[in-house]
């Protein structure tokens, strides 16, 4: 199986994914001509054509889902052949981040170096449809069974996944047993990494007006929000970390290097607590506003981004913010509020499958990762099928440079991930 995947990856995936990299199909938010230049359509068709060519012997149904003013969404249903067929929904996206500068070879010039495929969209998230289809193909080749499997590949993740839920609803799937979203981070290339939680985020403006010294007043307000010496955020925004997540954080922390590039002092010296702080505690950052400050103006506006614990409801936190910071001399305007995600514990069976898969392909047990950042669509997906198990995977290590120059896909990790997927798709116990 391992050999088959490696060979198929070399002979079919990498050449096709390289041609995908050549298409500069930026997400709609970064290309206002996308409907005219049809680059997203070209990328979508490129993936479908590859799937059609590679799955002739596999029973499936391919659809291009369409909603006006939204990029097309690819939907593939693969009909399983298990005795007790379960339903799996897999997610990926084909739109890309802007190119930015600093590339060694160029964002649309696919190059393999040290077994990594360089180019925009290689790892985030072009490789996903290739991974899912290859896993099914490998199982077919080795006459192993697999479950019913839907693959959804949307075209506007980097712009906010506005129609994703509508697209999935168009499929009328009554029950999903397992959702697999492959668009997340990993820590190293030594094991199967599973994202267990993500923080939420609120962006808001504080407006201070008609006081003798608005800046001084702003400091008073900010002190209500966070302790300026320690960075500890007001207790209203703290939550209780579930026991299982806390234990997982403690196991994972040793594997995660945490860098403090600034010259500021660390708020916390214990490494495990630093990791927990980043993953589960709220934090406040100033992101703009003061540059417009006018000396003659007695009003000022500051924009704040606040990360929320994964299990804190963003609407509730928004109301608390308004209550906390609205006074006779100040107002709060919520710009955006997105709840994070705390995935419920896996069943014992699924946990075993994931561990076995990771040991089989990587030689190490899998590990849970707790993301300090946010991927908002994951929560919407989770809410759509709350009964389903939710597996968040990825190929994005810190040196994969997703969203930056020299984005690259570690081909060895990718191949091993396909191996793990075969393990999951064929297992009776998911
Ligand atoms: Zn992505």
From TrEMBL:
MF-aspect GO terms: metal ion binding; peptidase activity
Keywords: Hydrolase, Metal-binding, Protease
Presence of keyword Metal-binding: yes
Gene Ontology biological-process entries: proteolysis
UniProt-listed InterPro entries: Cyt/Met_Dipeptidase, Peptidase_M20
Record's protein name: Peptidase M20 dimerisation domain-containing protein
Native organism: Paramecium pentaurelia
């Amino acid at each position: 199986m391992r050999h088959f995947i490696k060979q198929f990856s070399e002979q079919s995936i990498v050449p096709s994914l390289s041609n995908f990299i050549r298409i500069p199909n930026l997400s709609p938010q970064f290309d206002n001509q996308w409907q005219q230049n049809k680059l997203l359509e070209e990328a979508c068709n490129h993936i479908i054509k590859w799937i059609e060519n590679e799955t002739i012997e596999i029973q499936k149904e391919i659809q291009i889902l369409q909603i006006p003013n939204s990029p097309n969404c690819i939907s593939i249903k693969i009909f399983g052949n298990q005795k007790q067929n379960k339903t799996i929904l897999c997610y990926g996206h084909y739109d890309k981040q802007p190119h930015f500068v600093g590339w060694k070879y160029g964002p649309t010039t696919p190059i393999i170096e040290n077994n990594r495929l360089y180019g925009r969209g290689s790892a985030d998230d072009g490789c996903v449809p290739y991974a899912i289809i290859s896993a099914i193909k490998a199982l077919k080749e080795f006459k192993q069974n697999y479950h019913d499997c839907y693959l959804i590949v949307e075209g506007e993740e980097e712009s906010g996944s506005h129609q994703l839920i509508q697209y999935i609803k168009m499929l009328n799937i009554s029950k999903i047993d397992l959702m697999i979203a492959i668009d997340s981070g990993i820590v190293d290339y030594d094991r199967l990494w599973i994202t267990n939680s993500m923080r939420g985020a609120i962006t808001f403006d504080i407006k201070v007006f008609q006081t003798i010294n608005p800046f001084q007043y702003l400091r008073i307000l900010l002190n209500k929000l966070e302790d300026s010496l320690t960075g500890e955020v007001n207790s209203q925004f703290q939550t209780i970390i579930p026991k299982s997540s806390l234990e997982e954080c403690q196991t994972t922390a040793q594997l995660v290097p945490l860098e403090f590039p600034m010259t500021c002092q660390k708020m916390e010296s214990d490494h495990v607590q630093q990791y927990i702080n980043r993953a589960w505690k709220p934090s406040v950052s100033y992101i703009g506003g003061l540059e417009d400050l006018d000396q003659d103006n007695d009003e000022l506006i500051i924009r704040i981004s606040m990360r929320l614990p994964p299990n804190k409801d963003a609407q509730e936190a928004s109301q608390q913010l308004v209550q906390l910071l609205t006074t006779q001399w100040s107002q709060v305007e919520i710009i955006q509020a997105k709840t994070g995600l705390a995935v419920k514990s896996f069943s014992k069976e699924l946990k075993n499958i994931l561990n076995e898969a990771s040991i089989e392909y990587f030689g190490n047990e899998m590990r849970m990762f707790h993301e300090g950042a946010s991927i908002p669509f994951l929560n919407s997906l989770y809410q759509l099928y709350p009964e389903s198990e939710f597996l968040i995977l990825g190929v994005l290590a810190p040196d994969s440079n997703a969203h930056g120059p020299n984005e690259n896909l570690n081909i060895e990790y990718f191949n091993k991930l396909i191996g793990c997927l075969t393990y999951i798709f064929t297992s009776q116990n998911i």
